[in-house]
Design goal:
Elements lengths: L1 E2 L2 E2 L5 E5 L8 H13 L4 E6 L2 H4 L21 H8 L3 H13 L3 E6 L2 H9 L5 E3 L7 H8 L5 E4 L5 H13 L5 E6 L14 H9 L2 E6 L5 H8 L4 E5 L17 H18 L8 H6 L5 E4 L14 E4 L10 H4 L21
């Protein structure tokens, strides 16, 4: 599957999430995108909402966060007003990313956001974890015919199946599921990355990881388990603060992660039992049968005058039981590789 010009089957797709890490500054957002590119990201992802498209401006306690998060005691409306990326910035941010050779897309949070992003011709869409139960939104987004990436951070097995069915009802099979743990930051013990190969087998779609840990181990392990997409929050400097700063990677950290992911891709390689040229050369260091002392024509082969030693230029050691008791056909010196034409 391709997202823009990036083929997920050839290289892991690494997404840098801007989220709220612009801290209300377009200049900061543009600088962050440049740093994302320099840190090895393939794509930037935004979030497209306004406070009014994602929640209600309501004083009810139901609209005050109290889930044991970084944002407890804040009103949903106020948090999203602070964290949103202004829609008026999107085109400039996308154009800057494209000028750097990056893919640029977003998470829509309602149909009006989908319509707006369509006007910007995004190459893909991302459904955020908390929107996986909004089946009408998923179906409408998928109906645009673009690749759709769906995070599963709060999803039950049934939720995932319903989201996939919504995409397929509108004939969209360009689906990637992201294993995700919706905790900010997430504990390593809660990641359960063995779910990734199970998701691949169970759902028959591309699978990746949306990672909220502060460890670089999770993306490495995920790629080793078959993940083809890695998404991480990115910030110029955590000292900037902001709604998402506590679980975002700084440029040097992100670059270290990218390098580790690329190394992991090389390490995984492909299923093969063929030997590389270097491995074939190294077989010269294996054991083989050598004449271990000077012998005369007619001498009997014994475990004393023929031994299995390094290097590997003689007969394979597996033949030793078969040839003991045979005779040498001619005089031979110690250190001669044993071959069949020396025996009678």
């Amino acid at each position: 599957m391709n997202i823009g010009t990036h083929n997920l089957n050839q290289n892991v797709f690494i997404i840098a999430e801007l989220s709220a890490n612009h801290n209300g500054s377009l200049e900061t957002a543009l600088k962050t995108i440049t740093a994302m590119k320099e840190s090895g990201a393939d794509a930037i992802k935004l979030q497209t909402y306004t406070p009014d498209t994602i929640t209600l401006d309501c004083d009810s306690e139901l609209f005050t966060i109290s889930q044991g998060t970084l944002w407890d005691k804040r009103k949903f409306y106020d948090l999203y007003a602070e964290a949103m990326t202004p829609w008026a910035w999107h085109e400039a941010l996308f154009n800057h990313a494209k000028s750097l050779g990056m893919q640029a897309f977003s998470s829509p949070f309602d149909p009006s956001a989908v319509n707006y992003l369509e006007s910007l011709d995004v190459p893909a869409y991302k459904i955020a974890s908390f929107e996986i139960t909004d089946i009408p939104l998923i179906e409408y987004t998928a109906s645009k015919g673009k690749p759709i990436i769906i995070s599963t951070g709060i999803a039950t097995l049934e939720d995932i199946k319903e989201a996939l069915d919504a995409c397929r009802r509108v004939n969209n099979n360009q689906i990637t599921l992201l294993k995700c743990t919706s905790a900010y930051p997430a504990a390593l013990e809660e990641m359960n990355l063995l779910t990734i190969p199970d998701m691949i087998k169970l759902f028959g779609v591309t699978v990746g990881l949306s990672d909220h840990t502060m460890s670089l181990s999770a993306p490495i392990a995920a790629v080793a388990l078959g993940a083809r997409v890695i998404e991480k929050h990115f910030i110029l400097n955590r000292d900037m603060g902001g709604a998402d700063s506590a679980f975002s990677l700084a440029p040097t950290e992100f670059r270290t992660m990218v390098d580790a992911v690329r190394d992991t891709e090389k390490l995984m390689g492909k299923v093969t039992y063929d030997l590389s040229p270097k491995s074939l050369k190294s077989r010269e260091f294996s054991r083989s049968l050598f004449i271990a002392e000077d012998v005369k024509a007619g001498d009997v082969l014994t475990s004393k005058n023929v031994r299995s030693v390094r290097p590997g230029f003689g007969m394979a050691p597996k033949y030793l039981p078969e040839i003991l008791g045979k005779h040498f056909i001619s005089d031979s010196f110690k250190g001669t590789p044993l071959t069949w034409d020396l025996l009678i």
